[in-house]
């Protein structure tokens, strides 16, 4: 039987929800940087009603685990944990950077993607990915938070054309122009739940789920603290 997976994301300025039922996708998305807490649950209700399902009928709940806005990531995982706990669902954390790579493939068929999200404080959240034949994404540059001008010293030139995704390219155009890469811009600025749910399906089929109490965000910055659920060390 085909998996039924709900994905939610509030890690950046965008707020999105997607429900995958077999090959059928139901999704909602809106750029609403200050209204995530108001938007996300109504979006969840809408896609469930459209599909004629309840939370308890799903197989897993996926969430944007970061990196991204500290507040946004925290909102997303908190809501996801609440929903999953109430419906007794396993959870799947999906990288926001990998989700944007999937978005570039969905919108323009890109198979080599360079992701840069504006991380403020003169830094970007960075990662590079190459799509494999089975639809998974191989990590070329591990996701990190780094000053954009420092990337040029850490990246080797190659013969590929890299699709650029994320807000970092517009935020730091001069610094990122020094990278020894051939790039092609895309329209993907933010991660989307409709791309996360595709990656979540792959993880689900491989048995890569976690219990609610073991789900965790990825902030990349060591200076932020996450208040863990009761009983966690």
UniProtKB/TrEMBL annotation:
GO terms for molecular function: acyltransferase activity. Residues 30-227 form the Gcp-like domain. GO terms for biological process: tRNA threonylcarbamoyladenosine modification. One of its GO terms (cellular component) is cytosol. It is found in: Cytoplasm. Pfam families: TsaD (PF00814). Signal peptide: none annotated. The keyword Cytoplasm applies. The keyword tRNA-binding does not apply. Keywords: Acyltransferase, Cytoplasm, Transferase, tRNA processing. Belongs to the KAE1 / TsaD family. TsaB subfamily. PANTHER family: TRNA N6-ADENOSINE THREONYLCARBAMOYLTRANSFERASE, TRNA THREONYLCARBAMOYLADENOSINE BIOSYNTHESIS PROTEIN TSAB. This is tRNA threonylcarbamoyladenosine biosynthesis protein TsaB. It comes from Vibrio ostreae.
